[in-house]
Amino acid sequence: MIKAVRGTRDLLPPDTALWNFVEATARDVFRAYNFQEIRTPIFEVTELFARGVGEETDIVAKEMYTWEDRGRAESDRGQSLTLRPEATAGIVRAYIEHKLGDRGLNKLYCIGPMFRRERPQKGRYRQFYQIDAEIIGPPSAGSESPARDAEVLEMLATLLDRLGITNWNLQLNSVGTPTDRVQFNEALRAALQPVVGQMCADCQRRAVTNPLRVFDCKVPEDQSVIETLPRITQFLGEDSRKHFEAVQAILAKVGVPFSLNDRLVRGLDYYTRTAFEFTHGALGAQNAILGGGRYDGLSDALGGPAAPGIGFAIGEDRLVMSLQEKTPAESVLRKPDVYVAPMAGMNGDAARLARELRRHELVVELGDDAFRLKKSFEAATKVGAKYILIVGENEVKADAFALKNLATGEQVSIVRANLAAWLRSNRG
Ligand code: HAM
Fold first, then answer.
1. How far is the CA of 332 from the centre of ligand 1 (A)?
2. Which end of the chain has a smaller Cβ tally under 10 Å, C or N?
C-alpha cells in the first residue's frame, strides 16, 4: 500500500469543516481591517529564501526542499528552486515585482501550504499550513509606525477571541535594528567565547557566523549557558526603544495583554524591532500557534525600494489543534437538511426536486431508485440527514411530499411550492 509521505497528512472530513471555519473566520476578520488576499507560487527561486530568511537560519541551512530544475529551455535548466518554507519572502518579492506600493496595496494576506524538512512530531509537519498577513509599504505611508505593529497584534487578539481560543499568551520583544545589533553581536561574541566550547556544534558555528541565532538553540544542555548571555533589549538604540514603548502603550490602551520575553529572537534573519509569538497552553512542546514581527529591511535586501513591514503567520495545523478541544468538528459541519429517496423508476423526478431544493441553499443528499425503502432510511441516517423525503408516483401526482424527521419519527406532508421554505425554517 502506498502511504502519505512522512510528515505529510491527509486532512479528512469532518476535520476539514473546522479548517474551513478557521479560514472563513480569518477572512472575515482580515476584511474588517482592510486586508486583501494575495496568492503567491508554492515554489520560488532558492535565492529568495537564502537572501530573505537568511543562510544561517535553521530553515535555510537544514529544512528546505530544494532541487535543480530540469526544464527543456536553457533558461530553466539548472535553476535552483525551493518549495516555500514560509510566505513573507514570496509576498515581499511580489510586492516589489508588481510595484504594489504604488497601487496602495499595503495590507495582504495569504493562506496555504508551506514545506520544511523538520523532524515530524505532534504539531510539527513537513507540509503544514499558514495563515499569513503582512502590512508593507513605503515609509511615506507610515508603514514604520508602531501603530501598525499594534494594529496587527490587536487584529490577532480579535481573531483568536472570535475563534473561541481563550488561553493564549502574547510574548513580545524588540530585536532592534541592524545598527543596534552591531554592538549586541560584539557583546554576544565576547560572552560566548569562553563558553561556546561546551555548546552544541550548531551553536559553535552560529557563534562565529551569526551569534543571534544561538537563541534559536533547542538543545537542553545549552539552555543554562544561553540564560547567561546578554540580551538584545540592553542594546536597543533610542529610536528602537521608543518604538517598542509606543507599541506597548497602544496595546495597553486597546486592552491586549502581553508579556515581555527578551529571549525571543525568532528563527528568521529578516526581523527588526518588534518580534512576537502567541503560545497556547494545550499544545505541548510545539506551543507557538503563530509568530511574526517587523522586517524593515527585507524589501531592500531583495533589491526593492524601502518598504518597512510587519506581519505574522499562524500555524493553521496548531490553531486547529487548539480549537479541537472545545469545538468538535461536528459542531461546525453542515449535515444534509434532507435525504431525497426515489421509489422505483423515480430517479428523474427525485433529481428535479433535489435540484429545486439545492437552489434554495439547502444541503440535499440524493438517493437511488434501486434502493429499497429500508436501505434509503439507513443511508439517510448514515449521512446524518435531518429529514427523509420519499418521491413516489403518488407524491408527484399529488404535488405534495411526506417529510419524516429521522430523529423523532414525526411526519408532515408539504406541497411542493412550500417545501424549500418549510425545510429552511425547520433545519437544524
Ligand atoms: P515561523 O515562526 O517560522 O514564522 O512560523 C509561523 C508559525 O507557523 C509557527 O508559529 C507555527 O505555528 C507554524 N509552523 C512553523 N513550522 C511548522 C511545522 N513544521 N509544522 C507545523 N506548524 C509550523 C514565519 O513563517 C514568518 N514568515 C512569519 C511572519 C510573517 N513574520 C512576518 N510576517
1. 26
2. N
pLDDT for 307-353, tens place per residue?
Answer: 999 999 999 999 999 998 788 888 888 999 999 999 999 999 999 99
User: Which residue is listed with cell 424549500?
Assistant: 420
Measured CA distances, 332 to 11, 158, 161 (Å): 16, 20, 17
Express as a percent the part of the chain with pLDDT over 90.
92
Which residue from 31, 23, 38 is spatially nearest to 110, judged by alpha carbons?
A: 38
* Cα of 262 vs its chain's centroid, Å: 25
How far is C-alpha 34 from the geometric centre of its chain's CA atoms?
Answer: 18
Phi, psi of 407 (to 5 degrees): -85, -40
**What does the chain come to in residues?**
428
Q: Are strands 107-115 and 36-37 parallel, antiparallel or unpaired?
A: parallel
Lookup: cell for 299: 524589501
- Ligand 1 close to Cβ of residue 128 (< 6 A): yes
- Rounded Cα distance between 289 and 28, Å, is 19
- pTM over 0.85? The answer is yes
> Measuring CA to CA, which residue among 311, 411, 346, 375 is closest to residue 110?
311
Q: How far apart are CA 56 and CA 60, in angstroms?
A: 7
Regarding the beta carbon of 88 and ligand 1, being less than 6 Å apart is answered: yes
- Check pocket membership of 171 for ligand 1, CB cut-off 6 A: no
CA angle 328, 333, 337 (to 5 degrees): 140
Residues 403, 389: contact at Cβ < 8 Å?
yes
Q: Which three cell numbers stand for residue 255?
A: 486592552
CA of residue 60 to ligand 1 center, whole Å: 14
Distances (CA, A) of 99 to 41, 49, 123, 228: 17, 20, 36, 45
Report whether residue 63 contacts ligand 1, using a CB cutoff of 6 Å.
no
Unique residue bearing C-alpha cell 518598504: 307
The β-bridge partners of 111 are 131
Taking all residues of the chain, what is their mean pLDDT, rounded to a whole number?
Answer: 95
Q: Whose alpha carbon is nearest atom 30 of ligand 1?
A: 312
- Cα–Cα distance for residue pair 180/174, rounded to 1 Å: 11
Q: Which amino acid is present at 258?
A: F
* pLDDT recorded at residue 331: 87
Contact 48, 304 (CB under 8 A): no
- The pLDDT assigned to 328 comes to 86
Alpha helices for 164-215 (secondary structure H): 178-192, 201-209
Tens of pLDDT, residue by residue over 20-55, are 999 999 999 999 999 999 999 999 999 999 999 999
Domains and CATH numbers, the chain: 15-177+237-329 (3.30.930.10), 334-425 (3.40.50.800)
